Amino acid sequence: MTKDQRTARRPSWVARELAGADRAILLVIILEQIFVSVSLLWMAAMVPYKGGAYPWVVLYSLWGICSGVSLCFSGPLPRIGAFLWHAVFIIYVLTHLEGSTLKDWTVQWALYDILAVFYLAVTAFLKLRSWKKTV
Fold first, then answer.
1. pTM, whole model, 2 decimals?
2. Cβ-based neighbours of 75, under 8 Å, separated by 6 or more
3. What is the rounded CA–CA span in Å between residue 9 and residue 117?
4. I need a surface site. Which of 3, 19, 25, 59 has the fewest CB within 10 A?
5. Alpha-carbon distance 25 to 38, whole Å?
């Protein structure tokens, strides 16, 4: 292998910086997703069950924890799973705003999640596109 071939395969400094920024943004999304999931799990454990939807909240929380941990790995599939988790959270919060008993923090997290959904959708699409080129 010649020197030209080795330098041609090295990513440029811009690509390294973008990869670092991607990891930092993903770390924020992972921490937020696990925090919300654990909070929902804690809420489901502390509120008495009276025939409501608490088993669904527990399943949703467990999905969020698993999806958040899977975001630590590269590839488009963990990002798609996290995208779906955040989209379900946003849809739930936005459909229950009218006369809601939702706390302010859930609405604030949902507004933040709009940015997370956009970022996860774009990066999952880009990773899926580059993944299909290599397969």
1. 0.78
2. 127, 131
3. 32
4. 3
5. 20
